[in-house]
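INTERNAL AUDIT FORM
Audit reference: QA-55
Scope: verify that the stored structure record matches its stored sequence.
Auditor: D.O.
Record contents follow.
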Amino acid sequence: MRKVPFVEDEYYHIYNRGVDKRSIFKDRKDLERFFQSIKEFNSVKPIGSIFENSFNKEKTPEKLVEIVCYCLNPNHFHFVLRQLVENGISEFMKRLGGYTWYFNNRHKRNGALFQGKFKSSHINSNEYLLHVSAYVNLNNRFKGKSHLLSKSSWDEYVGEENDYICNSDIVLGQFKTPKAYKKFALSSLEGILERKELEKELEY
């Protein structure tokens, strides 16, 4: 039983990293495969494999979770998710775990890829949601520069991405323009580092 239960319509910061801090993406092909999994496995109806789902004509399936923002880094990832159905987050993350088989098969390795069960933090206030969104969106830039082998929803938020997977309305709807959110997020980085709620997440 998780210390933080997942409740419908609540928001959560979900994160995990590679076992022993090892890479979970070795190249762009790995990164794009994981990103594809995020899009296709977010379905209440089981879809089987990504290959099988390519024949699925249902383009707007009922979703397990609402993705608010995400960041995929070479050895760890972050999501902000809203649970839409009972056990939605757990089921979504379970399906993403199938990426381990793909990674091991492609790179000729065995064993666990991720460091145990994914971690979670309940986002229990609007202020926390706004700051976590900035932290996640900019996580691949946290040490001063963006890593080439990373992908985040930042470009969705500032209008520079065509492949949208996030529902950013809960965040962007609180700002007059995407530019105003961009200013807020960039100015929030130092303050985020000092937030007690993020101490454990910052280890990632």
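Auditor finding: record pair retrieved intact. The CA atoms of residues 140 and 146 lie 5 Å apart.
Action required: none
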